[in-house]
Design goal:
With 202 residues, the chain is mainly alpha-helical. The protein folds into two domains: 114 residues; 58 residues, no CATH class. 68% of the residues lie in helices and 4% in strands. It has six helices and four strands; from the N terminus they run αααβββααβα. The model has no long low-confidence stretch (mean pLDDT 81).
């Protein structure tokens, strides 16, 4: 390829300034970084809404659905804190259920005490008196409404949603375009260097 032909090609390429690509790279990088940060701030705001609903014993399910939808559809929307991924914890709902189970246990103990007092009146004192044990059993069966206390696993009240590495939102498209313009800038810059090396008098 002769120098004259190279000069013609270079004049066409030269119409597009190398630094246009770099400028567009910087612009879209700033937009993308701002949008990425906004995604995270929105997640924190939605998590606080879940906590508030939980505290007020409100519609936690709807708040969780909104949070989950946001995290699953936006990059950098996870609720991580440094290297640790923080789950969403329904602390107040868990505590309310634990208190209900404790009350159920207390009610069960009260029913047993009432059964002993009732059967002592009927059969007299002494646990071995004939008919007293069946009396206690029957009283408990008649007066306890499923007072079996169960342990509540706290894992049922923790939720952890993971955001995608890339998403088709403002942040995702901006960062993608910034990457494309950076690649074009590097290609254009290296091409210019190559042409200048090939044709010294350009």
């Amino acid at each position: 390829m002769n120098k004259r032909h190279l000069k013609q090609i270079w004049r066409r390429i030269e119409l597009v300034n190398t630094w246009y690509f770099f400028g567009l790279f910087v612009i879209f990088l700033i937009i993308g970084a701002t949008a990425v940060r906004q995604n995270n701030l929105k997640s924190i705001e939605l998590r606080e809404a879940v906590v508030e609903k939980d505290k007020q014993n409100g519609d936690v399910e709807s708040a969780l659905r909104i949070l989950r939808k946001h995290i699953y559809s936006h990059m950098n929307a996870g609720l991580s804190n440094g290297a640790t991924q923080q789950p969403i914890q329904l602390k107040y709902r868990y505590e309310r259920l634990v208190e209900a189970e404790k009350k159920k246990s207390a009610d069960s103990n009260q029913v047993y005490s009432d059964a002993q007092a009732y059967c002592e009146q009927r059969f007299g004192q002494g646990s071995l008196r004939e008919g007293r044990v069946p009396c206690v059993q029957q009283y408990i069966a008649d007066h306890s409404a499923n007072n079996e206390v169960s342990k509540i696993p706290d894992a049922l009240f923790k939720f952890d949603f993971v955001s995608p590495a890339w998403s088709p939102d403002l942040a995702g498209w901006s960062l993608l375009l910034s990457g494309i313009f950076l690649a074009l800038f590097l290609i254009r810059f290296l091409t210019e260097r190559w042409f200048k090396a090939m044709v010294k008098d350009i």
